[in-house]
Design goal:
This protein is α/β, with parallel strands linked by helices and 215 residues long. The protein has seven helices and nine strands, in the order E-H-H-E-H-E-H-E-E-H-E-H-E-E-H-E. The N and C termini lie close together (6 Å).
Length: 215
């Protein structure tokens, strides 16, 4: 997405609460924490589609920020959950990578302008209709004119591993002020926890690659 110059799918009634995410990091039960970067994001980097300055938004435990920092990118990872940022910093220290992380609100990126690339791995799909509009507006303020935003989101073709979005929702969200350069099908890797076990039909701890969109 380029900024302009200026169980079965359950509808998202409301954006999950902040405490739900922070608790998942605190208890280490977040199904999206796999201990490595998402394969789809790795492929973006290999294809030459990530350029500094980079914002890794909703960075979680920091796998993408650490990867890109190690490869020489100027990158900042942000997350609204303090326990996520704490774990991300610990992961970077353990790997001896001087990666930067901050606690920040994805809805208010006014103070973070000028990013050439923004990476969103599994953040966009958590928002309800109203918050999705606010989030995309915030992204637009953070991206420099012509900047790229890569969105990896669980697809409505999935089995209910987490919040899911449709192609239409992505196209509608990134309408005015954006150029949709690609909207491809891919996969998102996760680890089944108790909350997903019934929907997925697999035991806790199983790694799964669920249908996803890469915009």
């Amino acid at each position: 997405l380029k900024s302009g110059s200026g169980r079965t799918l359950v509808p998202m009634d409301s954006t999950p609460t902040f405490s739900r995410f922070d608790e998942a990091y605190q208890t280490r039960t977040a199904p999206w924490v796999i201990g490595e970067p998402q394969p789809a994001i790795v492929e973006l980097q290999r294809a030459g589609l990530i350029h500094s300055k980079v914002l890794d938004i909703g960075c979680g435990t920091g796998e993408h920020t650490i990867l890109l920092t190690r490869l020489g990118y100027d990158v900042l990872g942000i997350d609204f959950a303090p326990h996520a940022v704490e774990q991300a910093r610990a992961n970077a220290a353990e790997q001896r990578v001087d990666a930067r992380f901050e606690v920040a609100d994805a809805m208010n990126l006014d103070a973070e302008p000028g990013y050439r690339t923004i990476v969103d791995s599994a953040l966009f799909h958590i928002f309800d209709d109203a918050d999705r509009v606010r989030y995309v507006s915030s992204l637009h303020k953070a991206a420099q004119p012509g900047g790229l935003v890569h969105v990896l989101a669980l697809s409505d073709a999935g089995r209910g591993f987490g919040p899911q979005v449709s192609e239409a929702q992505i196209r509608e969200a990134f309408g005015d002020g954006w150029t949709l350069e690609a909207l491809d099908t891919t996969t998102y890797r996760g680890v089944v926890q108790e909350a997903q076990a019934d929907a997925i039909g697999l035991p806790v701890g199983t790694r799964v690659d669920e249908p996803a969109w890469l915009a």
